[in-house]
Amino acid sequence: MPSAAFAKVTDSAHPIRVMIVDDSLVVRGIVSRWLQEESDFEVVATHRSAKNALEDLERSLPDVVILDIEMPDMDGVTALPLILDKRPHVAVIIASSLTMRNAELSMRCLALGAMDCLAKPQSTSDLSGGSEAFRHNLVERVRALGTRAAKRLANQAARRGGTFTPVRSELRPATSLRSATPPVAAPPLAKAPIAAPRTTAAAPTEVNISKRMNDPVQIRRMPRIVPKALVIGSSTGGPQALAVVVTAIKKVIPRVPVLITQHMPPSFTTILAEHLGRAAEAPCHEPTDGELIKVGRIYVAPGGFHMKIANSPAGPVIKITDEPPVNFCKPAVDPMFNSALQVYGPNLLAVVLTGMGADGARGALQIADAGGAVVAQNEETSVVWGMPGATAHLGACSAILPLDEIGPQIVRIVTGAQA
User: Any catalytic annotation for residue 359?
Assistant: First the structure.
């Protein structure tokens, strides 16, 4: 039986259909068991070969494919575009071992259309021994991405005047499907005035985010600040979104330091920093503990550690800590947001991009309450509207924007040209 940590949160009436493609029998067996212990998943096929998966794709009709990178007959990088060509709306999660080469290949897969990537435990014994963090991350990503994919297919069928009824794979006994529940339209964004911003950092506030997720979204006034730092948090879909944002803010990077926490394991964040540096045409790297923060540079939190900001006699510095995960994440966005607020006060611009979960929402609320500016990505352009959605429903945002409008908004805020 699944533990409470993996409680069902999807509102889809259809089980999320999952295909597992991995040449390891142990991996296929363990991952399949984990998913089948969840009431909202159905493992429709498992394959040791990418070629076999491609042949079965149109019969199994998965919502999510968990795809290994290294396989003997066809690697994941080769198979991915073929999978997306046959089934454009399927969500592909890349699962790979934790090596620099596989990190680079995983980043290539994200550029080719994969939705997310996960680092598998170093050995099958680690995997079979429990690996609760990997299990949690895998289950929640399958759930978030599968719900999104299933809804898109159901909406397409509804627009065509029919219902979506997938063909059953012969690899697993069929079970009945109920008709999909039509999606509920989001409430219109309401603008609400707020009290004059405080000039000192707010004390940490415990917020029950789950109880606030049905609250109407209210937009704060955009504070007239001159940001001393730009802090960005992201997760699922984040590497692609970050590349769009940093490309759009090239001209203001020389004015502020940019600090980014993206949910990724070690090696993956190293490659991400290299890619973002090229996109932004600016220095971008994983910082070391105690490193002085400089304007015109981009700092990416190293995988497996939290990145915080602290004061020093020479100025703000990076603090790399090995503290426990926050919101099941390490690195996590909230520690970066909270510590940045202590250093920069209200002169802070926080951006929350696409990602599952609610990491960053509490920190963003504290920044907003202290007088800083918070911008979130909108639901339509997010791969998963978890982190930005939680931030929006807490009432922390002064703007909720499509991805391609976030960069220009940052430029306006940094240059003092916002309306």
Answer: yes
